[in-house]
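Q: Please design a sequence for this.
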């Protein structure tokens, strides 16, 4: 765990700034892998042990970067590969403003505290799951990073589906309630 805390201390000055660090502008040299896993259920592990401090998970989530199908923790001077089993975040809460009107907005909160409104810059993406008829929803959070919708949030979202073909509206954007619709990875 000492390398985890060393990394956290090197990043501590970044957390003191307001907003998210500009990881999209950082291109440090690759330094190898760190034994960190973000499981499908949204739990973060280091060396097989859950990271129990939410502040530490939040700190790491702010310096997470995706390149293709790989995920890295980055600082201005180092880049460490980690394992992400599915999406790095979970959408754990959904609130709706102006429900049923053209101004409807879907607001999500992730397990690491990000607040995201679905819309043109934050797409809702539906992929086929393990079973052919299974629909798995994701939300673009930032810089190519996604949140998988938790089951309760998915059910809440399903109650908002309207029209034919089925769709959901948020922030003047229509999202098709179908697999791989609007998915840049498909």
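A: Design:
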């Amino acid at each position: 765990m000492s390398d985890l805390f060393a990394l956290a201390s090197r990043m501590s000055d970044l957390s003191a700034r307001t907003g998210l660090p500009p990881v999209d502008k950082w291109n440090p040299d690759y330094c190898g892998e760190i034994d960190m896993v973000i499981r499908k259920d949204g739990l973060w592990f280091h060396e097989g042990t859950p990271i129990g401090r939410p502040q530490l998970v939040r700190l790491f989530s702010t310096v997470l970067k995706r390149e293709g199908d790989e995920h890295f923790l980055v600082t201005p001077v180092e880049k460490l590969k980690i394992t992400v089993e599915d999406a790095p975040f979970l959408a754990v809460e959904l609130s709706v403003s102006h429900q049923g009107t053209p101004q409807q907005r879907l607001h999500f909160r992730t397990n690491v505290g990000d607040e995201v409104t679905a819309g043109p810059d934050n797409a809702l993406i539906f992929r086929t799951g393990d079973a052919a008829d299974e629909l798995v929803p994701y939300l673009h959070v930032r810089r190519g990073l996604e949140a998988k919708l938790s089951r309760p949030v998915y059910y809440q979202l399903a109650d908002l589906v309207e029209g034919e073909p089925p769709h959901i509206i948020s922030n003047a954007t229509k999202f098709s309630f179908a697999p791989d619709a609007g998915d840049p990875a498909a």
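Q: Thanks. Anything notable?
A: Residues 2-84 form a domain with the duf1285 like fold fold (CATH 3.10.540.10). The chain has two domains: 2-84, 89-176.
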